[in-house]
Amino acid sequence: MLWTCSELKQYWENVLEDTKKITGRNLAATPAVALLGNFIRPQSKKMTSKFIDLALILAKREITMRWKDPRGPRVLKWKDTLIKWTEGEGEALRQELAKGMGSEEGIQQWDTIFDRLKHPTTEPQEQTVSEDELNPEDNDIANRLSE
Questions:
Q1: Where is this region: Disordered (predicted)?
Q2: Strand, coil or helix: what is 31?
Q3: Residue 36: exposure state from Cβ atoms within 10 A (0-12, 13-18, ≥19)
Q4: Helix axes 104-118, 46-65, angle to 10 degrees
Q5: Under DSSP, is residue 75 helix (H, G, I), strand (E, B) or coil?
Q6: Buried-exposed string 102-135: b where 16+ CB fall within 10 A, e elsewhere
């Protein structure tokens, strides 16, 4: 059900595509990756792997939060939650992970990811909702993401 539903499959494809744009990691659009977080984790990119884990957890959270909503989960809401998390508690994770890596490489990885999240260079190829279908909450989120 979390994968075979066409709307949820499209949601996951958009989440994974956006995650690829943010991290530079190509993630297969499969249930193993989206639902179980089963992807290859290079040792040199621990920050990237942790960020992907966070992105997938928040994507699943968006599904559970909007389970009974006829419109289903929203990619814009997921991105907004991801930005809020990285702005707040993400700083603590950034410091903790950087200490564990023992180098500036961890800080640099996180900064690159955070910059791509806040300032995406390209738009997602497919939108699940057209601009005129967005509700006021989504319009507010879209405006904040485009700043």
A1: 118-147
A2: helix
A3: exposed
A4: 40
A5: helix
A6: eeeebeebbeebbebbeeeeeeeeeebeeeeebe
CA distance 6 to 4: 6
Q: Which of 58, 56, 46, 27 is nearest to 110 (CA)?
A: 46
Give the tens place of pLDDT for each residue, 90-112.
576 667 666 665 556 666 777 78
Q: For 131, what's the count of Cα atoms within 13 Å in the CB-facing half-sphere? A: 2
- Alpha carbon distances (Å) from 98 to 16, 41, 46, 112: 25, 17, 9, 14
The length of the chain is 147
Model pTM? 0.69
Query: Percent of the chain scored above 70 by pLDDT?
Result: 64
Considering only CA atoms, give the Rg of the chain: 15
Nearest-angstrom CA–CA distance, 142 and 139: 5
Burial class (CB in 10 A: 0-12, 13-18, 19+), 44: exposed
Cα 137 to Cα 126: distance, rounded to the nearest angstrom: 20
